[in-house]
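stage 2 :: seqdesign
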């Protein structure tokens, strides 16, 4: 039943979608143009988590790689800005990005704490009821299992770590090539650490499974001019090659999963590999096609995508229990999405004010 929510969502994506006049838009990954893509990815993440809660069949499969696109766009955006602005881009880099991440995060965290501690009678947060909502409980949950008070907010923490890695890499290294190499090594080392924590210390797997896509985004941004020439001149070949690679990987991993007794490890390997390939496929498709209802995705959801990512977990938790519990899975999906969107727009207004205030204070 929950899978039915895909019908209006896909309709918004594809109804009105059109191919660019010359078959290629050179600004397809510009900041303004990717707002619509970020909006679609943010809603996909909401649907992914709703799919897990409602045990839907299609939602988790279709939306599983949305975070990898976010990482890809982050890597692409940072390296492109560095190429255009030079070393001046790194001036107050940490302050700028910390403020933009930390303010929305702590505002959302405050809301989660208030809800779980007072509205729910301190029953515990997320579905980890062994931890109470207190400073000690929140810290213990994080260091023991990687659990966060803001539901599924591992992405924000990992992204902040990658911002630090990017700054260190390009401050330390003499040129962009060395910086990308050092940045990639740091990301790989961090991912190995997260894999160790997941395998031996009880952390959950999300902390490492999509990290490599930020390296892919960085490389894509560095070589975008060359990549664009190839796409524009040989689009049919590029699409065919990507299609063959994607199909071959899915087939190979499918065979391994059903013919070995290490299915869990194969799933992990499949996910890590596909998170590198799928963002490239999305970027190539996005260079030729404008998604439908762009004003809704870009002008609306895209502008509040970060807030939507942070706050939706509160509502899918809220509507699962107590007086607000919703039994019908489709109604549950609609209510979670609607409440999350409304809250996201409100939080965006608050966050913009606070971010501007701190940026002015720290002159960044």
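stage 2 :: out
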């Amino acid at each position: 039943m929950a899978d039915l929510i895909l019908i209006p969502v896909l309709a918004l994506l594809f109804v009105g979608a059109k191919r660019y006049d010359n078959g290629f838009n050179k600004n397809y990954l510009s900041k303004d143009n990717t707002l619509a893509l970020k909006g679609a990815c943010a809603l996909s993440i909401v649907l992914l988590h709703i799919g897990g809660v409602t045990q839907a069949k299609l939602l988790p499969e279709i939306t599983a790689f949305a975070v990898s696109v976010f990482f890809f766009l982050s890597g692409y955006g940072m390296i492109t800005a560095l190429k255009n602005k030079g070393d001046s881009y790194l001036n107050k880099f940490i302050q700028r990005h910390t403020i933009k991440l930390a303010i929305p995060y702590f505002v959302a965290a405050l809301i989660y704490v208030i809800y779980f501690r007072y509205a729910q009678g301190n029953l515990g947060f997320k579905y980890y009821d062994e931890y109470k909502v207190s400073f000690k409980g929140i810290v213990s949950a994080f260091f023991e299992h990687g659990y966060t008070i803001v539901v599924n907010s591992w992405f924000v923490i990992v992204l902040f770590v990658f911002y630090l890695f990017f700054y260190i890499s390009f401050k330390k290294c003499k040129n962009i090539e060395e910086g990308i190499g050092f940045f990639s090594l740091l990301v790989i080392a961090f991912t190995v650490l997260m894999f160790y924590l997941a395998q031996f210390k009880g952390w959950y797997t999300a902390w490492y499974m999509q990290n490599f896509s930020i390296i892919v985004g960085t490389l894509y941004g560095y070589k975008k001019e060359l990549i664009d020439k190839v796409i524009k001149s040989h689009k049919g070949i590029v699409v065919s090659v990507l299609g063959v690679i994607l199909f071959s990987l899915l087939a190979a991993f499918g065979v391994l999963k059903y013919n070995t007794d290490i299915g869990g490890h194969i799933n992990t390997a499949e996910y890590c590999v596909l998170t590198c390939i799928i963002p490239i496929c999305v970027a190539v498709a996005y260079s030729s096609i404008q998604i439908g209802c762009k004003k809704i995705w870009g002008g609306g959801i895209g502008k509040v995508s970060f807030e939507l990512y942070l706050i939706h977990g509160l509502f899918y938790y809220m509507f699962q229990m107590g007086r607000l519990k919703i039994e019908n899975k489709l109604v549950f999906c609609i209510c979670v999405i609607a409440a999350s969107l409304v809250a996201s727009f409100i939080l965006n207004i608050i966050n913009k004010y606070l971010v501007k205030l701190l940026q002015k204070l720290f002159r960044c």
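stage 3 :: structure notes
- The first strand starts at residue 18 and ends at 19.
- The CA atoms of residues 281 and 350 lie 35 Å apart.
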